[in-house]
Amino acid sequence: MVSNRCKMAVKEELKKLGLHFIVVDLGEVEIMENLSYDQRERVKIALFNAGFELMDDKRAVLIERIKNTIIQMVHHSDELIKTNFSVFLSEKLNYDYTYMANLFSEVQGTTIEQFIISHKVERIKELIIYGEETITEIAWRMNYSSVAHLSNQFKKATGLSPSHFKQLKDKRRSPIESIGNSTGLNFNDVIK
Predict the structure, then answer these.
(1) Positive or negative, the Cα torsion across 107, 113, 119, 121?
(2) In the chain, how many domains are there?
(3) Which pLDDT belongs to residue 176?
(4) How far apart are CA 174 and CA 118, in angstroms?
(5) Is residue 10 located within the same domain as residue 67?
(6) Quick one: which of 14, 70, 134, 176 has the fewest CB in 10 Å?
(7) How confident is the model at residue 192, as a pLDDT?
(8) One domain, residues 50 and 63
């Protein structure tokens, strides 16, 4: 779950099943009842039919929490992180960053850092397309040390400078779900 719409959909499915929830948050649900095996299977099926997955594996749950925390910070928060993101992630999830980074790399086949960069680049694309902020303002908002740092990372990920991207007529963006699995722009996007 990465949005309020997702949380509302999960709450609705739980209500349909007659379950009472304490918390429905990004990637987490706390239910008042102790579920029987049959109830758990009904929840699993209902969530699957609504486009969600019930995860039992603690490692998979942690990976989803890492992803959701990153997505929340990059796409849905105006809060500026005043510490290193690794420290922020460790404090937010109460796990050692090295453990999380190793687990994430092992399971996802990419690093947390690359996942963050992919999401930041996608958010930068969105902000450039909106055209309401300058590249300098976007760099500050996205917690870059300089416009040059943002530009270098953006060009490395997309093959385009932010200003060239802004000039493109066909400004394709990637759905949040597919970020981290590709660079967001591919050769065909650039030549169209």
Answers:
(1) negative
(2) 2
(3) 74
(4) 10
(5) no
(6) 134
(7) 43
(8) no
pTM: 0.65
pLDDT in tens, 82-127: 678 899 899 999 999 999 999 999 989 999 999 999 999 999 999 9
CA–CA distance, 186 with 184 (Å, rounded to integer): 7
- The boundaries of the domain holding residue 42 are 4-54
SS (H, E, C) the chain: CCCHHHHHHHHHHHHHCCCCEEEEECCEEEECCCCCHHHHHHHHHHHHHCCCCCCCCHHHHHHHHHHHHHHHHHHCCCCCCCCCHHHHHHHHHCCCHHHHHHHHHHHHCCCHHHHHHHHHHHHHHHHHHHCCCCHHHHHHHCCCCCHHHHHHHHHHHHCCCHHHHHHCCCCCCCCHHHCCCCCCCCHHHHHC
32-43, pLDDT tens digit by residue?
888 888 888 888
Q: Do 68 and 112 share a domain, yes or no?
A: yes
Residues sharing a CB contact under 8 Å with residue 114, sequence separation 6 or more, in sequence order: 180
**pLDDT 10s digits, 164-190:** 998 885 556 677 777 776 444 444 444
Residue 24 confidence (pLDDT) above 60: yes
Residues 72 and 42 in one domain: no
